[in-house]
């Protein structure tokens, strides 16, 4: 089955990477200023984050246990060696949609949904997929379509 690619990527070839990054960052700020992630938590409920050894070490320290124990209990490794949390929804999400390891959460959670992190053009698949998970990303990309399709 073909992967979904958001319509914004029909317009990105005509713009420089820098211009797109600036526009993405501006709209990211605007949309997240009015987004209530606590009433959503869809990312934590549907997209297990990638975790690194450094993340595991930090979480183990926070939970006063060992990295080995964290790996055994919460982490799965795929055939290429990439590690992620194994539960969907995330095992660290509580009933009020708070992250119970917030201070020690993985870098992938801190950076999600990555729209502000630059290289917008090079992250076509990531942003398209995230627009199906995250209502804020969907709104940002839709606003980008509006801006780019009316720009000269
Ligand atoms: S899916 Fe997007 S809007 Fe929802 S909680 Fe995650 S970052 Fe916030
Ligand atoms: S670690 Fe926290 S922020 Fe990351 S997916 Fe789990 S609940 Fe969400």
Question: Overview of this structure, please?
Answer:
It is a single chain. The model has no long low-confidence stretch (mean pLDDT 95). This protein has two domains: 72 residues, no CATH class; 64 residues, no CATH class. It is elongated. It is 46% helix and 4% strand. Helix 6 crosses helix 7. The longest helix is centred in the N-terminal third of the chain and has 16 residues. 24% of the residues are buried. Strands 1-2 form a two-stranded antiparallel ribbon. With 152 residues, it is mainly α.
Summarize the structure.
The chain has 152 residues and is mainly alpha-helical. 46% of the residues lie in helices and 4% in strands. It has a two-stranded antiparallel sheet with strand order 1-2.
Q: Top keywords for this entry?
A:
152 residues; mainly alpha; two-stranded antiparallel ribbon; elongated; binds iron/sulfur cluster
Topology readout:
Elements: H1 17-32, H2 42-46, H3 53-62, H4 67-74, E1 75-77, E2 83-85, H5 107-111, H6 124-133, H7 135-150
Antiparallel strand pairs: 1-2
Helix pairs in contact: 1-7, 3-4, 6-7
Bound molecules: iron/sulfur cluster (2 copies).
The site of one iron/sulfur cluster has 10 residues, from loops.
Q: Can you tell me the residue ranges where pLDDT is under 50 for at least 5 consecutive residues?
A: none
Number of strands: 2
How many domains make up the coordinates? Answer: 2
C-alpha end-to-end distance: 35 Å
What's the helix count? 7
Strands side by side in the biggest sheet: 1-2
Order of helices and strands: HHHHEEHHH
Average pLDDT for all residues? 95
Strand count, sense and barrel status of the largest sheet are:
2 strands, antiparallel
| Proportion of strand residues | under 5%
Task: Kindly provide the radius of gyration, computed on alpha-carbon positions and rounded to a whole number of angstroms.
Answer: 17 Å
Per the principal axes of the C-alpha atoms, what is the gross shape? elongated
Helix content: 40-55%
Structural class: mainly alpha
Small molecules (ligands, ions, cofactors) in the structure:
iron/sulfur cluster
